[in-house]
């Protein structure tokens, strides 16, 4: 409780920056006339939006599987429980830096490429983990790498939804992608339990993780997204 109170107090100086009024362009005539249900129906038949759902489903699968079953994996490797605790803590810490970095990348690169790199890196991280010897150091390095991509998929995913459909119904449309994330999370946690009961280890779950991450990296590439316009401010001669 004291830790939560300290975190809340630390966040207070940020409130002023986050609540400053932001000038946004007025909605177009088409956006003004479009109702919520019409926006949802239009989004659900949009291929780019559905591909975004599939990628975010994969993210939920990874996160819930690891959060739920990492202690069990550590135990199967014959390591002390403290390794699992430190690994989860490292994931949380690395997640802070990864999310901030992904948010900065959205303004410089197309969001679909950011997502493809994030998901593709998970394939390499899991593959490296499976090839390396089971030690505390392996878990810590793996946790740092995966934690960096943990929720770093959120900023580019939200950015893509806003680019595809505008910001008027962003909360609802991004909320639906988050529903796909939660469904993936349910399956990741549940299937992880089934795997260890049936096979005595998580090998097949790691392979499934790699396959889903590779699929997510590829399916984000065809998403419809305009190129980033580079600002020329400050480059014009006086």
Tell me what you see in this structure:
The chain is mostly helical. The chain has a domain at 61-219: Growth Hormone, Chain: A, CATH 1.20.1250. It is built from ten helices and no strands. The protein has helices spanning 2-18, 29-33, 36-44, 47-76, 81-106, 111-131, 136-148, 154-165, 170-199, 203-219. The longest helix is centred in the N-terminal third of the chain and has 30 residues, at 47-76. The model is unreliable at 18-25, 27-32 and 231-238 (pLDDT under 50).
Largest sheet data: none
Rg over C-alpha atoms, rounded to the nearest angstrom = 20 Å
How many beta-strand elements? 0
Distance between the termini: 57 Å
Instruction: Give start-end ranges of low-pLDDT stretches.
Output: 18-25, 27-32, 231-238
Indicate the percent of residues in helices: over 70%
CATH topology of one domain: Growth Hormone, Chain: A
Give the name of the CATH architecture of one domain: Up-down Bundle
| CATH top-level class of one domain | Mainly Alpha
Question: What is the strand content?
Answer: under 5%
CATH-assigned homologous superfamily of one domain: MFS general substrate transporter like domains
The sequence of SSEs as H and E is HHHHHHHHHH
| Secondary structural class | mainly alpha
Helix count, per DSSP? 10
Structure in a nutshell:
The chain has 238 residues and is mainly α.
